[in-house]
Design a protein that fits this description.
The chain is of the alpha+beta class. It contains eleven helices and eleven strands. Helices cover about 30% and strands about 20% of the residues.
Amino acid sequence: MWLLQITFWPTREEKKRRKNHFDLGTAVHEIESAHVPRPTDPKTNRPIRPAHEFDVCLEPDSYTEEKYRLFENYQRNVHQERPYEISTSGFKRFLCSGLGQNDRMVNGINQRLGSYHQCYRLDGRLVAMGVVDLLPGCVSSVYLMYHQDVQDWYFGKLSALREISLAIQGGYKYYYMAGFYIHSCIKMRYKNQFHPSYLLDSETYDWDLLDEDHLARLSARKYVSMSMERHFHLPPNKVTNVKELGLSIDTGDQQLVDQLDYYQEDHRPLTDGLNSALAANMPGLMSFDELQRVIPLGRWKVKLGNQGVFHLEDLKGWAEWDINDPSSPKRAIAELAAALGPELVEKFVISFR
């Protein structure tokens, strides 16, 4: 955002303070029009307005024509989608039909819950918008769009900093950065520039530090599981033949076969894994014990097509479903509840279509 013209500079004392202390909240807010100083013009005795006004507001994820025009421009110019692939119904379904909004008090902080749009406006014009889910344990970044006119302004980085600041100021413990990290996708590379960051191991649901060693492995292979890399004692560089693996048949035929399969990307998990974010104590989710203690899952309301609204405990098979079985529907519902928290579970209805 340094492309914006900022007329008024920090005082000498403020510069000295910033040299020794960095505050993310102050840094991300200082370019907003509400925080830009407006000294008095000695000639007119009126406040001097900055050359441009930049504003950011968090609002419910409702549909507006202004938001759809931004979405259409982004999908067409950044994702190269064709006109028939972009529609208001798709936009509404994708980014305007998330969780409803709610609030709660946490340690004296009024914490928002639900799905929101973080709107970035320059001189009153909507130029970018981030879609976020605010959950009891985390801020989850869902999507970001920006107008082609500002595509060189690093809105991916700016929005991430804003959302990290939102997580800190709102008392949320974790920040999930826009779901997936695809190392081969250039548009996602900005994510590895935030430190410390952690990447989820799809085999074990452990979180591994995304450091230089991890990035080197992602560059060398299409599929990387750090638990398997450690299991096989693999080097970070790309290996092209059996001799380079440094193993012999004496280490066990099956291990060598499994290792070769892993390198040749013909991989099947060596273990069943945890298969459950709840069992893995996923950061930002309620623990299994806390969930069972706080949320009566059977009383969660569910809508069954046109048949009406019931409680989960009214469903045939609910009592027999095992919450400890990762493949059980009850387990899937429990994981959803662990992410939403008791306030949102009480307010919303599950819909089966």
